[in-house]
Design brief:
about 500 residues; single chain; 4 helices
Length: about 500
C-alpha cells in the first residue's frame, strides 16, 4: 500500500480546513439572514419616527458591519489554531511562536493583513467621532466670535461685489447681476439709493476716497461714475440673529431664498444716469477702482486689457496690455500709485505709476488656475486668490515665490484684507467664508446654518474696520449681502 507523503497530507488537511471554513461561512450567512429577519420583525412592533425604507437601510448596513466583524473573528480563530499547532510541533525543540512574532510565511501575511484591516477600521471610526466632536467645538467657538448682525435683501439676482463708503455717511454698496447697484444703511438694512444707469450686469462697485461718488463696472462694456445723496435713517432695535438654532451643514432649496423684494428697494431714491461714462473697452468690464487721490480710475475687462482714465475728462491715459486671457479683477494701493490686475491666464501683474516717465510691470506666476483676485495690504505685500483653491501671500520685493500659501477645499473668489489686523477673508464657491492671518494660520469660519449665512456661492468680502456694528461684509449669488461683527481681539487670542 503506497505511503502518503507529508506534502500531500498537508494539502489534504488545508483543503479540509477550507471546506470546513466555507461551510461555517454558509451557516453564518444563513443564521445572519434569519437574525436580520428577526430584527426587522422586532423593530416593526416598536414605535419609530423613521420611515420604513430608512429603517431597512440602516438594518442592512448594520448587518453588513456585523458580518464583516464576524468573518474577521472566524479568521482570527483559525489563525490562532494554526499558531497553536505550530507551537505543539516545535515544543519538542524547546521553541514557541506567538502570532505577533512570526517573521515569514503565509501565516504572518494573513495575520498582518487581518490586523491591519481591523486597525484601520478602528482608526477610521475613532477619527470620525473625534473630528465630529472637534468640529462641533470649533463651530460653537466661531459663532461666539463671528456674529451675523444684518442681512441686506432687495436685489433680484446674484450680488457680485460689496463695498463700504470711505466718507460720511458710511453706507454699504452692492453690485448685482440684476443691472443695478444699491446703497444700504448698515445699521437698519434699509435701501437708501438705487443706481439704474447700466444696461448689463453690474460687476463691481467702489466708493470715491473723499466724495459721495461711486464707480461701477458693468457687462455693458462701460464703467460709470455717479453721485449719490443719502440720508441715514434712525436705527431701530433688531433681533439677535445669533440666537437662531440649526445644524451647520443644512441644504436649503431655491424656494427658501429671499424673493428679491425683501426690504423694498423699489421705493428708494433712484439715480438714473452717470456723471461720467468710461467707454474704451471692447468687452465686459469686470472690475474698476480708484487710484489714490481719486483723480484717476482703472478698469479691468474681458478684452484682456486694463485701462487707466482721467476722471475729470474721461480720457484714456494708458491701456495696460500683456495678459493672455480675460481679466478677472483689479485693485489699487491705498497710499501709492500701484495697480494689480489678475487674469484667467493664471497670473497677476503689478503696474507701477509712481514715476510718470517709467511704467514698470512685474508678472507673478504661482497659481495653476484662474487668479480670481489680487489685493494689496499695508507695506509691500499682495494677497492673491485662485480657482486652484489656494491663496498666496507675496512680497513685492521678491516675486519668485510666495511667503505663505493657504490651501483650501474650494475655489476662492474676491478676497479682502483687514489692513489694520492683517486678517484675510476668503469667500468660497462652496458657500463658506474663512478667515486666515497673513502667515496662513486659519482663525475662524463664519457660521452657516439653515437660518443664517449664505445659501449659494459667496462672491466677495469687504472689511470695514472702523464701523462699530459690522466690520465684515459678504455677498453671494443667493441675492443677499450680510453684515458680520467679528470680535477680532478674541479671534487673535484663540489663535
Amino acid at each position: 500500500m503506497p505511503i502518503e507523503s507529508g506534502s500531500c497530507a498537508s494539502a489534504r488537511q488545508a483543503k479540509q480546513k477550507r471546506k470546513s471554513h466555507s461551510l461555517s461561512i454558509r451557516r453564518t450567512n444563513s443564521s445572519e439572514q434569519e437574525r436580520a429577519g428577526l430584527q426587522r420583525d422586532m423593530l416593526e412592533g416598536q414605535d419609530s419616527k423613521l420611515p420604513s425604507s430608512v429603517r431597512n437601510t440602516l438594518l442592512e448596513l448594520f448587518g453588513q458591519i456585523e458580518r464583516e466583524f464576524e468573518n474577521l473573528y472566524i479568521e482570527n480563530l483559525e489563525l490562532r489554531r494554526e499558531i497553536d499547532t505550530l507551537n505543539e510541533r516545535l515544543a519538542a525543540e524547546g521553541q514557541t511562536i506567538d502570532g505577533a512574532e512570526l517573521s515569514k510565511g503565509q501565516l504572518k501575511t494573513k495575520a498582518s493583513h487581518s490586523t491591519s484591516q481591523l486597525s484601520q477600521k478602528l482608526k477610521t471610526t475613532y477619527k470620525a467621532s473625534t473630528s465630529k466632536i472637534v468640529s462641533s467645538f470649533k463651530t460653537t467657538t466661531s459663532r461666539a466670535i463671528c456674529q451675523l448682525v444684518k442681512e441686506y435683501v432687495g436685489h433680484r439676482d446674484g450680488i457680485w461685489d460689496v463695498s463700504v463708503a470711505k466718507t460720511q455717511p458710511v453706507v454699504l454698496g452692492t453690485a448685482s447681476a440684476d443691472h443695478t447697484a444699491l446703497l444700504w444703511s448698515i445699521e437698519t438694512g434699509k435701501c437708501l439709493a438705487k443706481y439704474v444707469g447700466h444696461v448689463g450686469s453690474v460687476n463691481s462697485i467702489k466708493f470715491h476716497p473723499t466724495e459721495q461718488v461711486a464707480l461701477t463696472a458693468s457687462g455693458d462694456q462701460t464703467a460709470h461714475i455717479w453721485r449719490y445723496i443719502v440720508q441715514l435713517p434712525t436705527p431701530q432695535p433688531t433681533a439677535d440673529c445669533n440666537q437662531m438654532s440649526g445644524e451647520d451643514e443644512v441644504e436649503v432649496s431655491d424656494k427658501d431664498e429671499p424673493d428679491g423684494d425683501g426690504d423694498g428697494s423699489s421705493d428708494c431714491p433712484t439715480v438714473r444716469g452717470p456723471l461720467t461714462s468710461l467707454k474704451s473697452h471692447q468687452g465686459v468690464v469686470i472690475a474698476a477702482d480708484w487710484l489714490v487721490g481719486g483723480k484717476q480710475a482703472v478698469t479691468a475687462s474681458w478684452d484682456r486689457t486694463a485701462n487707466l482714465y482721467d476722471v475729470e475728462t474721461s480720457e484714456l491715459v494708458h491701456s495696460l496690455t500683456g495678459h493672455d486671457q480675460e481679466l478677472t479683477h483689479c485693485c489699487t494701493h491705498p497710499t501709492q500709485r500701484l495697480v494689480v490686475t489678475s487674469s484667467r491666464d493664471t497670473t497677476f501683474r503689478l503696474w507701477d505709476f509712481r514715476d510718470p516717465s517709467i511704467h514698470s510691470v512685474n508678472v507673478f506666476q504661482g497659481h495653476t488656475d484662474t487668479v480670481t483676485s489680487a489685493v494689496f495690504t499695508v507695506g509691500d505685500n499682495v494677497v492673491s486668490g485662485s480657482d486652484d483653491r489656494t491663496v498666496k501671500v507675496w512680497d513685492l520685493k521678491n516675486m519668485r515665490s510666495p511667503i505663505a500659501t493657504i490651501r483650501t477645499d474650494s475655489a476662492v473668489n474676491r478676497i479682502n484684507v483687514c489692513v489694520g489686523q492683517r486678517i484675510i477673508a476668503l469667500p468660497h464657491d462652496n458657500r463658506q467664508v474663512r478667515l486666515f492671518d497673513m502667515s496662513g494660520v486659519r482663525l475662524a469660519r463664519l457660521p452657516r446654518s439653515n437660518r443664517q449665512g449664505h445659501r449659494r456661492m459667496v462672491c466677495c468680502s469687504a472689511w470695514s474696520e472702523d464701523h462699530p456694528i459690522c466690520n465684515l461684509f459678504t455677498c453671494g449669488f443667493d441675492r443677499q449681502a450680510i453684515g458680520w461683527n467679528i470680535n477680532i481681539p478674541a479671534l487673535l487670542q484663540e489663535k
